[in-house]
Amino acid sequence: MPSPTGWLLLGLLALPFHQGEHLEFSVRFGVVPAGRLTLQVTRQEVRPGGDTLLEFRMEARTRGLFNALFRVHDRIRSQVVVPPFASVLYEKHLEEGRYRAHRRILYDPERQVAVYENGDTLPTPPGALDPLALYYYLRTVPLRAGDTLRVPYHVDRESTWLRIYVERRERVPGPEGPAPAWVLTSDLKASGILKGGGDFVLWLSDDGRRLPLRIETSLSFGTMVATLQRVEEGRP
Questions:
Q1: pLDDT in the model for residue 50
Q2: Overall domain count for the chain
Q3: Residue 2, pLDDT score
Q4: Element (H, E) at 100
Q5: CA–CA separation, 144 vs 141, rounded Å?
């Protein structure tokens, strides 16, 4: 039987993503091409205590005519520890039109608190996730049509247990052609990532990689649709 460290290594090998993974999406608002969004796994290291630190980054930028009308440049960094797959750091830098937001949150999974830059310390659910870590967490859990997942969540001074609904399985376009995917919805409001964000729908490929093939988010000025265009695989 594997040792605790052996179990941890087996678990990491089973993750559908690893350091070096780079996903590139085209973004449109309604029917208007708007820019690019990237998701990356930028760090994966075993810490002295035996757990593993993973770092994720997201960057969204408008291009072309849309950039002249409403410039967006959002950057987000998230770190989690595995096990238990819980956030330890969340940073966001949002530039959306004239709106600016910069925030840094330190999560302490053992104490179940989140510490803000001004020293405020707020309670969190056990194993709380930030908005970016949530996308990666959903890639790791078993899915079945009709299931409802309850996920611990904290951002912007608010804690909750999100309900994620596994709606159905359908085929959608992917970077390698049409592919079967799970359709997930939630009571999540996407304001942790985008100002004024509303309901979202996520399509995860029904294969070993669990790629986010499509992300759809309702915003105050329209619906943002991000479609996966290019994949660079990471390595354990």
A1: 84
A2: 1
A3: 33
A4: strand 99-108
A5: 10
Cis peptide before 84 (omega within 30 of 0): yes
Scan for tokens 């399985």, then name that residue. Answer: 169
* CB-based contact 165:174 (threshold 8 Å): no
Q: What is the pLDDT of residue 161?
A: 92
Dist. CA 85–CA 51, nearest whole Å: 10
Question: Residue 186 has which token pair?
Answer: 């939630």
CB-side exposure of 177: number of CA atoms within 13 Å? 0
The residue range of the domain holding 212 is 4-232
How big, in percent rounded to 5, are the helix, strand and coil portions of the chain? Answer: 10, 55, 30
Residues of the chain with pLDDT below 70 are 1-13, 188-198, 219-222
Instruction: Provide DSSP, 111-179.
Output: TTEEEETTS-EEE--TT-B-HHHHHHHHTTS---TT-EEEEEEEETTEEEEEEEEEEEEEEE--BTB-E
What is residue 195's predicted lDDT score, i.e. its pLDDT?
A: 45
